Amino acid sequence: MKLKLPRQLRRALRQRAEQTGTSRGEVVLEALKQHLETTPPIAVEARLRCVEAQLALLQSQLQIGEVAAAGHRDASEARKQAYQQWLRHFEAHPDEIESGRDAHEMAALKAATAA
User: Fold this and answer.
1) In the chain, what are the domain boundaries?
2) What is the mean pLDDT of residues 63-86?
3) Average pLDDT of 11-36?
4) Which end of the chain has fewer CB within 10 Å, C or N?
5) Is 22 in a helix, a strand, or coil?
6) CB burial class (10 A; 0-12, 13-18, 19+) of residue 12?
7) 3-state SS string over 36-78?
8) In whole angstroms, what is the distance from residue 15 CA to residue 22 CA?
9) Cα(107)–Cα(94) distance, rounded to whole angstroms?
């Protein structure tokens, strides 16, 4: 395999090869061997488990958000229904409307205080 290495790295490899009396290829192989011996490889399975855990966390957060949004929609819908019921009530019984208010204001007030 042929790689194009940065100039600084090529110089360092050449210097190391001259110091040890070996070729640059042998210097690279020795460095890779040392890296593999000192650094534990991260197994694909371990990385996959990490990604799966992050995905599960994101899915649970999404579900929590959906439940909260559904609860908000349900509460909003309940307020609208209460308002409609109170509006029908006050339109049917205009004598129960407080002075200075109309049926819509009374329905909104009753729906808000009942919720």
Assistant:
1) 7-41
2) 78
3) 84
4) N
5) coil
6) middle
7) HHHCCCCCHHHHHHHHHHHHHHHHHHHHHHHHHHHHHHHHHHH
8) 10
9) 12
